Amino acid sequence: MASNQNIPKPVKFAFGGISGMGATVVVQPLDLLKNRMQLSGEGGAARAHRTVFHAGVSVFKSQGVPGLYKGLSAGLARQILYTTTRVGVYTTLFEKFSGPDGKPPGFFTKAGCALTAGAIGSFVGTPAEISLIRMTADGGLPPEKRRNYKSVFNAISRISKEEGVTTLWRGCGPTVGRAMVVNIAQLVTYSSAKEQLLATGYFKDNVMCHFASSMISGLVTTIASMPVDICKTRIQNMKVVNGVPEYKGAVDVFLKTVRNEGLFSLWKGFTPYYARLGPHTVIMFLLLEQLNKTYVNVFVK
């Protein structure tokens, strides 16, 4: 990454959050469509949306442009908590294990850094994550079943009062698991892809190199993380009726999804997922690289 060891740790954490928030503002509609697609046809029911285009048109016709940004406050809160933590922890560990001459750590060391950063960040961000899932799913439900959260703060407050504080960490297991997969795939492949592209001699450490590295990273991350992501989404969106939850856990979601909807349903919503994750990865890393470089140029002599 473009970060320098002279950048203070609080600044690294802040830059991680800012870059994640900037990317979220751009891709929030795709995140909403991804969640709607993953919940469509749940339990073998008829799919509400045939394609991501159909889902987008449906939301736009019924709710307009604001409907596509439903849950934005939760998405931004998630970035403040999750991305700030994971990027800050990863960057700090990456530099800690780099050689004295600046040589980057080996693959397995980078993977360990990514696992640690993902686990810590996802645990911190789970309350915002569950709020985001519910707020983006709400518009696809019948009016009588909607939760109608007004904002992420209202969502967290109501969940705590109506379902108990521990519900804010419902699905924490698959959330942490997904984050670990995403961080290994996203952060490690980004670093590795960037190193390999620079080694070819055809790329310089500039925006084009960051863009290409991000797109490669986004594709690998999408393929690897979608099965875990759909389990997380369905657990966090489920309701408990008469004390009986819809799912017993991530394994139960996995088995029921495959049995009722087929193996490839684990990659349901692939297009909006990658269309979201690809640009999100690109924008996040581009912003992060530029913020780091700007700080070094301005404040580090």
Word description of this protein:
The protein starts with 8 loop residues before the first helix and ends with a helix. Strands 1-2 form a two-stranded antiparallel sheet. The mean pLDDT is 85. It has 301 residues and is mainly α. The longest helix has 32 residues, at 107-138. The relative contact order is 0.16. The chain has nine helices and two strands; from the N terminus they run αααααααββαα. The chain has helices at 9-39, 52-68, 72-96, 107-138, 152-163, 172-200, 207-237, 250-261, 270-299, and strands spanning 240-241, 244-245.
Question: What is the secondary structure topology, with strand pairs?
Answer:
Blueprint: H1 9-39, H2 52-68, H3 72-96, H4 107-138, H5 152-163, H6 172-200, H7 207-237, E1 240-241, E2 244-245, H8 250-261, H9 270-299
Antiparallel strand pairs: 1-2
Helix pairs in contact: 1-2, 1-3, 1-9, 3-4, 4-6, 6-7, 7-8, 7-9
Summarize the structure.
73% of the residues lie in helices and 1% in strands. It has nine helices and two strands, in the order αααααααββαα.
Q: Main traits of this protein?
A:
2 strands, mainly alpha, 9 helices, 301 residues
Reported for the largest beta sheet, the result is: 2 strands, antiparallel
- Give the topology string: H per helix, E per strand: HHHHHHHEEHH
Principal-axis shape: globular
Unreliable stretches (pLDDT < 50, length at least 5) are none
Q: Which percent band covers the strand fraction? A: under 5%
What is the assembly state of the chains in this entry?
A: single chain
Total count of helical runs of at least 4 residues: 9
User: What is the first-to-last residue Cα distance?
Assistant: 19 Å
Secondary structure category = mainly alpha
Helix content: over 70%
The average pLDDT score comes to 85
Q: State Rg.
A: 19 Å
User: What is the spatial order of strands in the main beta sheet?
Assistant: 1-2
- What is the strand tally? 2
